[in-house]
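Subject: for your reference before the review

Hello V.,

The reviewers asked for a structural picture of the protein, and I figured it would be easier to keep everything in one thread rather than splitting it across files. Below is the amino acid sequence we used in the manuscript, unchanged from the supplementary table.
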Amino acid sequence: MRPHLLHPHVNNLILIGGGHSHVFVIKQLGMKPLPEARITLISENTYTPYSGMLPGFIAGHYSFDDCHIDLRKLCQWAGIRFICSTVKRLDPAEKEIICHQYPPLSYDLLSINTGSQPRLHTINGALQYGHAVKPVNNFLSQWRQWLNSSAATGQTYHIIMVGGGAAGVEVLLAMHYHIHSASNIRANFTLICSDKSILSTHNKRVQNFFQQHLDRLGIKIITNQKVTAITAHQLLLTDGQTLDADFVTLAIDAGAQSWLTESGVQCDSKGFIQVDKFLRSISHPDIFAVGDSAAFTPSPLPKAGVYAVRQGPILTLNLIAALKKHSLRPFKPQHRFLSLLATGERHAVASRGPLFATGKWVWDWKNHIDRKFMARFNPSPMAANKNSDDTPPNTMRCGGCGAKINSSILQNVLSKLDIQPNPDIVNGLGDDAAIINLPAGVQLVQSVDFFRHFIDDPYLLGRIAAIHSLGDLYAMGAKPHSALVTAVIPYSQAAIMEETLHHLMLGILTTLNNENTTLIGGHSGEGSELAVGLTVNGTLTPGQALTKSGFSHGDNLILTKPIGTGVLLAANMAANCQGRWLDNAFNFMLQSNQTAAMILRTNGTHGCTDVTGFGLLGHLQEILTASQYGATIALDKIPVLDGALQCSAQGIQSSLYSANKKSSNYPNYTGQHPVFPLLFDPQTAGGLLAGIPAHFTDKCLHALADAGYTAAKIGWIDKQLPASVITFKE
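And here is what came back from the structure prediction:
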């Protein structure tokens, strides 16, 4: 027995929300890891906007990437697990977080930085007809949709901003600038402020400047009025005045998300978690809250991003101290802070106490500060493992059967799984082996797949692993029947191991249940990293198999999914993959091949395979060897995942790329087509490659498209070519 050295996790630290404080925590923990803690970020979006650059983005001065932090990429760099989901409920008694379409997550220490959103429920019709500036991603989507639907109509629209604070004024001016500089939309603008003056927290010189600036632009200002109701095309004020309104934006008093107040954690009257000077909940010392999510009890703080930014370093120190049982440090907010307010164009105003300054130079100053802030959270791709702690744990873990997951953990997990019954299974889980009664007149089809984790989310990994494994059955034309699972779980504290195994099995079972496949057993053990495999069983009517030798001359080659997962996963391992690219790739990996296989069968295919580890060219060569034909590939027609070409052009490759290329007996290709290197890219949960008779091809492609597949004709079988020879058409 050769013992292995591990760093077992003993604590669960969960961060909810990708706000300004938490991105600082992630960056710091990436530079100085905590091997004893499993750290998880839960965010409903892969990208988090930087509020300081939001007006510039709306105006058109910044691109999306300029002013959004890629949370998935940052977490990958920092070695922190990223879960893209929405929190539905917090149970502090059970120390459990319930998310949308995700298994429950337990925590030992929790930090909340989810921000705030306007209290729309205080205005009749606001939820239905208003557009709150927060959550920012929702607002940006709604604004883009309105711009697209309103272009080139010739109508004059009425755009209204409700809220005369800094956010309302800056966003309104940015919308005005965009409308007049980058669109053909005609619109007039109105600003409604409940105070006697706009920007009431700023000095008179700042107020006067913006009052005059808005007047010059023809923007109407209504002060000392509140909105009482919003309808589809009108807005009602407290004095009874009615205004025409086509797009109403709200930047009013902030409120908290409902799950905070419903959690039982002590909150203020608006639902924000009350925290002490250490940023810790006054009712639950294992919960921290910062930014707009928190109500600072020593002295109330305005809802301003500057406080979240300043709280980040103290929060990091206190989370580490809480895990290590050390003393906490107090947060000491500044009484005054500098505000740099954008005026729509590349011009800004500086405000701090009595200070007032304005000009293009203020914009340049603000732009420099904002870009410097953003650069901190776009770290360079990793060159090596950053974990420099080589201290071995106190115990050595055994191998062999001594490495099995302990029975109490296994039984706890199995008891929580909703395993669907199957009349064909005589004995399944709980016995030494499964006994299966196969229906009469069918053949057993069996396949196995196994791989180490490529993402730190065990639930997502389980779902994709099952999709990947079942692909072999669908490629053969078989109907899935049952499956066994092999799971390797990193050694950690028992509760963490149990949760990891539970989430992995739930992910697998979610896919298996969707595919009418019964879980009948498996094996679990400890290891240095998360890994999973499935042995899948299927049934097939004799003589109905789809084989690699079934391809015929004249068949068109149909590929049902884009390629590029290998290069994207390789880029992600080095924290060099855009989050949106990976999100899109996961969506394709989660797409079942079941319906595609049925469509291919209906349209006359006799030969099929799934494109997985050997890459598109490797699996095509298996087809050509078995069928004794050659083929022509149209490189321009091959569907490719977003970002795969960019990563490939940077020289990023999967570790299996070189072996796939070396083993491929392809002709000397002298072209420079950018897709060509991706032919050797190994695919995880890839699509099906089938031969479809020419007269069925268009019908087949239309059916695949209607079913949601990004399918394409990528070439054809040609008996005029020597066996196994491939020619390439650009």
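For the response letter, the relevant points are probably these. DSSP finds 20 helices and 37 strands in the chain. Residues 401-540 form a domain with the 60s Ribosomal Protein L30; Chain: A; fold (CATH 3.30.1330.10).

Happy to draft the paragraph if you're swamped.

O.
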